[in-house]
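Q: Here's a chain of 426 amino acids. Please give me its 3D structure as C-alpha cells.
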Amino acid sequence: MDSRSHTHVTAALRLCLHALLAGLLALVVVRAVGEGAADTAAVVAVTLLTAALYAAGAARSSVQPKDSAQPTDSARPRTSVQPGTSVQPGTPAGAWWLGGLWVLWAVLLVLSPDALWVAFPLYFLQLHFLPMRWALPAVVVTAAAAITSFVVHRQEIEPGAFIGPLIGAAVAVATVLGYDALFRESERRRELIVELVATRADLAEAERTAGTLAERERLAREIHDTLAQGLSSIQLLLRAAERSLPENAPATPHVRAAREAAQANLAEARSFVRALTPPDLEHGSLAAALERLCARTTAAELTVRFAVSGTPVELPTPYEVALLRTAQSALANTVRHAEARRAEITLSFMDTSVALDVVDDGRGFDPSGAPVPERGTGGDGGFGLPAMRARAGSLGGALSVESAPGQGTAVALTLPLPDTEAERAA
C-alpha cells in the first residue's frame, strides 16, 4: 500500500479503537448506575478519570503516514494507533501514559466486574506502545487481571471467564502481528518497485551512453578511413605534381593552392576525429587509459594488473581506439565469464608493431568450438571476438586467441606501426 492508503487505514482503525474504548467505558457507567450499586459514584469517577486520561493522550497523538516509509522494527510492531507528537511508542511519556491507564483500569476492575471488557482495547495499546518483549507479558498480565476480576466478583469459576479474555488477547496479538507482516511485505514491495524504476532509468541511461560512444567511435573511424585518408592521398599527389612542374609553370600556383586547401581540410578532419575520440583517450595517453581501466575493473577475488613493454610511441587515434576497445572487451569477458583470480594487460611497443595482450587464469574455453558467444559475441555490447578481429583487420593487424578449458585465456592484438613519413603526411 502507498502512504495515502496507509493513512486512511490507520486513521480508520484508530477511530475504531477510540470508539471501542469509549463504548466499553460507557457500558461500565450505565451498568453501575442501572444496578444502583453502593460504589456507583466511585465507578463513575474512576471511569471519567480513565476517559479523561485516554482522551488527553489521544488528543496529542496523530496518524503519521511518514512511518510507512520507515523500516519496521521487529521489536515494535505497528498497529492502528500511530505515534504522535508527545505520546509515542517506546518513549517514557508513552509508557507512563499507558501505565496510568492500566492502574485506573485495575482500580475500575476492583469496583465493577464489567470493566474487564476494557482489557481488549488495552491489549492493542500495550502491543503498540511497548516493545514486543514487554508487550506480550503485559497482555498476559492484563488477561490474568480480567480473569481474576471475573472470578472475584462472580464468586464462581466458569470456562467463559478464562476463554473470553484469552481469546481476546490471542486475537489482538494475531491482528497486530498480521498487520505488521503485511506492512513489512508492503514496504519490501514498495522498495523493490523503487529499485526497479531506478535500475530501469540507469539501464536506459547506460544504453544511451553506450550508443552515443559507439556512434562517436564509428564516425571517427569513418572520417579517418575515408575523408582523412582521401585528403591525405590528394595532398600527396598534389605535392608530387607540384614537384614535377617547372618553376614558372602557369599551373603551379593552382596546384599549390589546391594542396594547401587539401592540407587545411585534412587538419579539419583530424580535429573532428580528435573531438570524437572516446572519453578515456581525451585526457592522457593510451597507457594511462589502460591503467585506469585496470584500476576500475572490480570483481570478486580478481586482481588486474597493467604493464608497458618497450618504448612508447605516439599512435594514430584509430590505433589507440582499437587497442582500448579490445582491452575493454577482453577484460569484460574475463569478469563476466572466466571466473579468474588474476588478469594482466600488457601493451608492448616493438620496432615495427604494437601489441596488446590480455591474459587471465580463468576457466578458459575452446576457441574452435561453439561457445564463442560465451566470450562476448552477444552480451558485451557488440565487442566480441568477431568485432575484435574486424577491428584488427581494418588496421592491417591480427587477433589471436589461445585458450583451453581450465587453462585460462590469452587474447593478443598485433597492429603494424604506420610508416613514419606516410603517417606524417597523412
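Q: Can you summarize the key feature?
A: Residues 1-5, 62-86, 370-383, 420-426 have pLDDT under 50 and may be disordered.
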